[in-house]
Fold this sequence. Notes:
Distance between the termini: 27 Å
Oligomer: single chain
Helix content: 25-40%
Mean pLDDT: 88
Low-confidence stretches: 220-225
Radius of gyration: 18 Å
Strand order of the largest sheet: 5-6-3-7-8
Largest sheet: 5 strands, mixed
Strand content: 15-25%
Shape: globular
Order of helices and strands: EEEHEHHHEHEHEEH
Structural class: alpha/beta
Amino acid sequence: MIKLENLTKSYLLENGRHYVFRDLSFEFPENANIGLIGPNGAGKTTLMNILGGTDIPDRGRVVTDKTISWPVGLSGGLQGSLSAKDNIKFIARVYGFTGDRMIERIKYVEEFAEIGEFFEQPVKTYSSGMRARVSFGLSMAFDFDYYLIDEAGAVGDASFKKKSLSIYQEKLSKSNVIIVSHNMNEIRSLCDHIIVFNAGEAHIFDNVNEGIKMYQKIKTPAMQQ
């Protein structure tokens, strides 16, 4: 169960306070793969960050009995002065992995990310694509009930995208995913339900194609995410 109770999030801008959403309340469909879609600025990424614990709401709360990953497409969570290897060691310790279990996670990410000698260089020297590869591999190195995927499919060349899709499929055999994507083919192939965000509201669709139809009718607002 993942439930939002009166969730409110805003940001202070030069022209005043902008509310991403106010008193947002709903329960995600249980044990399902869910696509979050909507125009830029609708709050999809903000909600993903709150679900993954990398941001906090102004008020309200997320109630869950599930383990949830940090957003896989988010590379900003890596500490820039540390290497990818040291970042992985830190995360592994947080989740209680030491010794051989930690080494297994380090090796997994190193082989998956394919960034060569940069793996032991400071993350701040990486390109955005390299950071995303490490972030994705790091998320996949741990088991969660739900994986948060934020446009991760857009990262890397065709070979890397193919490998990423293979990992998705492996994880989905025993876990679920909540994914933000503008790629409707990806949404159709991965998701059981759709949640369409628009103007601070969420509309839940059991029929994926019906949700996509609503999304396609929405005019993109001027406020960009």
